[in-house]
Amino acid sequence: MSIIQTKTYQNLRDKLKNIMPDFEIQQKAELAVKINRLKKERGAVILGHNYMEPGLYHSIPDFKGDSFELSRQAAQTQCDPIIFCGVRFMAETAKILNPEKTVLIPSLEAGCSLAASITANDVKQLRKRFPGVPVVTYINTYADVKAESDICCTSGNAQAVIESLNSQTVIFLPDEYLAKNVARECGKHIIFPVDKPIPQKLQDPNIEYHLVGWHGKCEVHEEFTVEDVENVRKQFPEVLVLAHPECSPEVVESADFSGSTTAIIRFVENSKAKNYLLLTECSMADNIVAENPDKEMLQLCSVRCPHMNQITLEDTLDALSHNQYEITVPRDIQRRAKKAVDRMLTIH
Known about the structure:
- By secondary structure, this protein is of the alpha/beta class.
- The protein has three domains: 3-110 and 308-322, 3-Layer(aba) Sandwich (Rossmann fold), CATH 3.40.50.10800; 115-217, NadA-like (Rossmann fold, 3-Layer(aba) Sandwich), CATH 3.40.50; 221-298, NadA-like (Rossmann fold), CATH 3.40.50.10800.
- 44% of the residues lie in helices and 13% in strands.
- It is built from 15 helices and 13 strands.
- It has helices spanning 3-16, 22-42, 54-57, 67-76, 88-97, 120-129, 143-147, 158-164, 176-186, 226-235, 249-254, 261-270, 282-291, 313-322, 331-345, and strands at 45-49, 63-65, 82-85, 103-104, 135-138, 151-153, 169-173, 189-191, 210-212, 240-243, 257-258, 275-279, 296-298.
- Strands 6-5-7-9-8 form a five-stranded parallel sheet, with helices on both faces. A four-stranded parallel sheet has the order 2-1-3-4, with helices on both faces.
- The chain is globular.
- The chain starts with a helix and ends with a helix.
């Protein structure tokens, strides 16, 4: 091994020795050295989502975080190209914020069930049914949907975004569970007009405002149940349960803490508890443990996001080596979507 490879291997081993076998750490260290060398030669920046597998997460990203944090970094970077180790809607957001730069995603298979649950035409139809009502779309949407929106949000600032609009009624898309959780936090009414006629009380001046929701779901977070939580608590009474707000309201209500991936990471870092149950993408549990070796994560799930799992070190190296796969967003969509994303970035 070269000195650089030895150092990379040692850094990975220190973090991941209890998570993966040594031969795998060696292999990932070799790939990481090649990627980091090529990244420097090309003047590239690598953004890594919190859901990336541990070998990648702890070796090559220049910036790590949730969708909101990585959107901020994408908006501020001077580097070109931008390699986004995340799913397609995230890479699209980076392109929206950097229209003149090359944005690459390591795999074309890195989609998102939630983003795919709604189309731009769906948003247009909702606008017709609710004329004048502002549209908030979760950042977990594709560029053409963002372009039909007034403002985007993340799981971390959804409530603040809604409240910033000062509107009696808000269309909130597309995550059903996030919408229900936000409605509960705000003490607001929520309707799903796809299922039922629009109630007359929608315009009731005695109600501050409603949320108009959509039946989109994350295929990972909808797997978790209250029964899962109850069974773990029976075995480990002192465990702290952490749930992402894309989980059902019942699961979130049964948890000890709910928040964005960044909020969950900070919660664990600041908590004195030793044992946790994490109800979100499984790789994140390994990443948290690697950074907090005094903490333990119960391995309830074998649920990996099949889309996030498409991003590998091998494909990231290919992306840098062959300039693949480039993300493009039509100019008109980019321009309109950027307004919605820029408004989101002003709200904490």
